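Collaborator request, handled under Task 6.
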Amino acid sequence: MSAHGHPGGAGSGPARHERPELDELALTAARAADKLVASARERGAVRWLAYFEPLPDLLRDAPIVDLRRIGMRARAAYGPKDSIRDVLPAVVTEPLLEAIDRLLKGLARREMSGG
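C-alpha cells returned to the collaborator:
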C-alpha cells in the first residue's frame, strides 16, 4: 500500500512528471489549499483546519492514482448542509473549489483517453 493509502504502491500508474498537466493542476489546487488552511487557522476554525491541513501536501506529493480520492475528499467539504463556505470567506473557498474541479476534470479526461 502506498503512503497515501493506495494499494498499488508508488509503481501504479504514471509518475506525476510524466503528466505535467495533471501535476500543474494538483499544484494549483495545493496553493489554493494553503490559503484556505491559513484562513482557517487565522479564524480559529479548528474542525476545518483539521480536515484541510493535510490537503496541500497531499496535492503536492500524492501519486496521480490518489489524486481523485484526495480531490473528492476536498470537494465533500462543500456540502449543502455542512459547508466550509459557512465558516470561511469566498475569497479562499471558491478558488480551492475551482482548482479541485479543474483537477478532477483533468483526471477524468486522462481516464477517458486511456492514459
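The cover message to the collaborator said: "The longest helix spans residues 20-43. Residues 16-112 form one domain. Please let us know whether this matches your experimental observations."
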